[in-house]
Each structure stands twice: as C-alpha cells, then as structure tokens.
Amino acid sequence: MIRILSLGAGVQSSTLALMIAHGEIEPVSAAIFADTGAEPAGVMRHLDWLESLVPFPIHRVMHKEGLLRNIEESIKGGRLASAPFYAKTPDSAYEGTLRRQCTREFKVTPITQKLRELLGLKKGERAGKEIRVVQYIGISLDEAIRMKPSREAWVRHEWPLIDLRMTRSDCLRWMAARGYPKPAKSSCTFCPYHDNELWRDMKLNDQPSWEQAVYVDKLIRGGVKGTKHSELYLHRSLTPLDEIDFRNAEDVGQIDAFGNECEGMCGV
C-alpha cells in the first residue's frame, strides 16, 4: 500500500506537505498536483518553491487538453467538460449555473490515472477492491462538509487536518510560526466561484490572470454547444466581468472614521 498526498498548492494542502516534511504527519511516497492549465502564475511559483522543500516527489499531471483549450474547442462545437458558469435564458432570466464537470475531468481523473501508474497497473487492468492507496486530502475542520469517500474501492481518503482539529486559520498560523509564506488561492483564473474580493485582488495584482478571465468571460457569452442558454457569464450578476466595479470602500475613500472598534452587534 502506498500513501499519496493530493496537492492543490493552496493553504491546506501546502500545510500538509510541510507538516509531512517536518515529520509531524506520517510520510508519503509522493504528492500529485493536477494542473488544469488555468492556474495563476503565483500558484505555479509556489508549487516550485514547495517542491524544493519537501523530501518526496511531486508529480504534475494534466488532462490531454487544458481546461481553457476545452472551453475554446466547445465554442467551435466540441464537447464541454462544463464549469459552473452562470446562465441566462433567452428571456433574460437567471437560471443558475451549468453542471460542474471540470473538477472531475481535469483534477480527479488525472490524479486517479497517476495513482494507477504508481501502482504499476496497465491500461484496463483492474485494481481490485482491496485498499492499495491511502490518499491524503487537504480539507480543514472548517470545511468538513467537503469530506467525501473515494469513488475507487482501492483508494481510501484520509484527512489529517480534520484528525488534528486544524482549521484554515490554524494552518496559516502554523506556516507563519515557521516563516513560511501564505500560499495564493489555488483555483482556475476564470473560476465562477470567485468572490468579489478575489476578483478585485486579481484585477489589481495579477494582470495576466485578470486578462485571461476577461477573455474567457467574453468567449462563453454566446453559450456553448449542447446547452439551451443564450448567454453565459463568470459573475453571478450576469454582467460582463470587465464592466463590474470591484472597488471596495477603502478604494473609493470611504474609510471608517471611527476606527475598528466594533461592539459585536452587527447583524444581530
């Protein structure tokens, strides 16, 4: 049986990798990073840095085509491994999001294929039902709702941060106490799940990622083959990304004149 870390290069999985390097968690044979081809440059730089510190190999795997390429091909009539784009129907009403398939096809499947390769399994060879891989997943206590068992009978998921009762904030404190930098958020540049603060930060501090997101937002506007929606958007407001004002109160000069002495009654 082999022990593998599923590495997203975000806060939680980076903490796991470093805790393993410090001997605080049982060692792994390797880590696997699934590259969608749409990660911000800062995430890839962090991955390079992390790889220089840990005592185990980090395998980078990728779908035969990146997610961006898949979206571009779908506009031409190809199959879309859909992301949860916000959809507008022909009558201009909001109708929720497209089905989310991108994670499974561009992250889960390439990782599973690499696990099979590490076990020495040939194409089409059955892995059986006996546990052959223990896969560490970087989910923290405050995200426990995301815990899911593996769909593969021969893979068992474990969540060391849950076992240690560590939250995301605990992970940040653990890294800060040892002089490690805070990782960038690990997600595709054009992920519709970004909140306004992340969009704002990207626009101000990561122009290449912002330009790619705006490009994809415009690319999907006319919809894609196989969907009934007339328009698709990256932002839940159904507004073109480059037309949204992401400035916060501080940006427009509305700084709180009374400091930060909240009495804890907001929202009560």
Topology:
Elements: E1 2-6, H1 11-21, E2 30-34, H2 41-51, E3 58-61, H3 67-75, E4 86-88, E5 94-97, H4 102-118, E6 133-137, E7 155-158, H5 160-163, H6 168-177, H7 196-205, H8 207-219, E8 231-233
Parallel strand pairs: 1-2, 1-6, 2-3, 6-7
Antiparallel strand pairs: 4-5, 4-8
Helix pairs in contact: 1-6, 7-8
Structure notes:
By secondary structure, the chain is α/β, with parallel strands linked by helices. It has a single domain, classed as 3-Layer(aba) Sandwich (Rossmann fold). The protein contains eight helices and eight strands. The protein has helices at 11-21, 41-51, 67-75, 102-118, 160-163, 168-177, 196-205, 207-219, and strands at 2-6, 30-34, 58-61, 86-88, 94-97, 133-137, 155-158, 231-233. The strands form two sheets. A five-stranded parallel beta sheet has the order 3-2-1-6-7, with helices on both faces. A hairpin with a 5-residue loop joins strand 4 (86-88) and strand 5 (94-97). The chain is globular.
